[in-house]
Specification:
The structure is a single chain. By secondary structure, this protein is of the alpha+beta class. The chain has two domains: 234 residues, 2-Layer Sandwich (D-amino Acid Aminotransferase, Chain A, domain 1); 63 residues, Dna Ligase, domain 1. Helices cover 28% and strands 20% of the residues. It is built from twelve helices and twelve strands. A seven-stranded antiparallel β-sheet has the order 10-9-8-7-6-11-12. Strands 2-1-5-3-4 form a five-stranded antiparallel β-sheet, sandwiched between helices. The longest helix is centred in the C-terminal third of the chain and has 14 residues.
Length: 345
């Protein structure tokens, strides 16, 4: 993996590992994983080689998408304006405007901040640029809007009753990953359903205490949940740790439409080779909040099943330079000779 030969990267990697507050594990690090993965990756049921490593994600992910292809997703206003001018215009909560250091710019029928709240109970603010759910919050009157910073203002999202029943304090999104194949056609790599983990936070971000639930990709039925070490008393969850509502067996409504929306987005933003789409299900169907074209971290999926178990996925990641030929060939042989069914169709 070239870790020993690149001292600078190795120092960076070890520093990142220590920042998670988990005891460093040599057995994890020498295989390219952060130490915390030993607590929630299913290594007991799947061979380690089938997991895309943190080393590959941190240092090879940039090979998938050019900076230019990521730009429409980085700027959330641009992302929403592009959708507005497309056939996907009705697939997002809706852009209202932006606010820069307290100064409002209208991008809708609402000419002033006061006029917004004359007809809306609340709106959602998030930074124009950024990721990870930082500084995102609901606002119920103009006085709550920050006087410093650059924010996009969107309509508040209304989630479907199945999601609200499990955790009503955040908009709970499905992260759907898409990848282009050898014919430049996108396909779905996998998906995970995120649920917020703290009643005082409106976001479902996994690193902020959120729960990631596995999804049966054929049926859209939820499996059990997993959270980061230390976020909750346990790492594995059959039910939500706050509401105590069961995850497993819950059917995601409009599941086929969710998958179609992810593929439609991948077709529309066709410069992206790989993306993670944040989609929630409203009472009327799936809606997209945003897309991630930088490090759309696949750990949300890999806490449930490894990415490289799919031959189609590992072939494409090899062609994009994410994994080496030696590694791809080793997994191919492993899947051919193992008595377990390691490979997916």
């Amino acid at each position: 993996m070239g870790m020993i030969g690149n001292a600078k990267r190795l120092r960076t990697f070890l520093k990142m590992d220590r920042s998670f507050g988990v005891k460093s594990e040599v057995s994890m690090l020498r295989h390219g994983f952060f130490s915390k993965r030993r607590y929630f990756y299913p290594f007991d049921s799947c061979h380690k080689a089938l997991f895309l490593t943190d080393w590959e994600v941190e240092f090879n992910f940039w090979k998938l998408n050019t900076l230019a292809s990521q730009e429409p997703l980085r700027n959330k206003i641009f992302f929403q304006l592009m959708l507005r001018q497309s056939q996907l215009a009705d697939s997002s909560p809706g852009l209202i405007g932006s606010v820069s250091d307290g100064r409002y710019r209208s991008l809708s029928e609402f000419s002033t901040l006061n006029s917004i709240f004359e007809s809306k109970h609340s709106v959602f603010l998030k930074p124009i640029a950024g990721a990870g759910g930082k500084s995102c919050f609901l606002v119920k009157n103009p006085k709550e809007i920050p006087g410093i910073g650059n924010y996009i203002i969107e309509n508040s999202a209304e989630q479907h009753s199945y999601s609200d029943r499990i955790f009503p304090h955040s908009i709970n999104t499905i992260r759907v990953f898409t990848l282009k194949d050898g014919h430049n056609e996108p396909f779905i790599v996998g998906a995970a359903h995120r649920f917020g983990g703290q009643a005082n936070s409106p976001i479902d971000n996994f690193s902020k205490g959120g729960i990631s639930c596995g999804i049966d990709m054929e049926t859209g039925v939820l499996g059990s949940g997993v959270s980061n070490p230390g976020a909750h008393p346990t790492i594995s969850h059959n039910c939500h740790p706050v509401t105590k509502v069961d995850f497993a067996g819950t059917q995601i409504p409009f599941w086929e439409e969710v998958k179609k929306l992810a593929l439609d987005l991948a077709f529309f933003f066709d410069d992206l080779n790989y993306a993670g789409w944040d989609i929630y299900v409203s009472p009327k169907g799936p809606m997209v909040i945003e897309g991630n074209g930088g490090t759309a971290n696949p750990n949300l999926i890999q806490v449930h099943s490894p990415l490289l178990g799919s031959k189609r996925v590992r072939n494409q990641l090899y062609k994009f330079g994410m994994i080496s030929k030696k590694r791809k060939d080793y997994i191919d042989r492993l899947c051919q000779t193992s008595h377990k069914k390691l490979d997916k169709p």
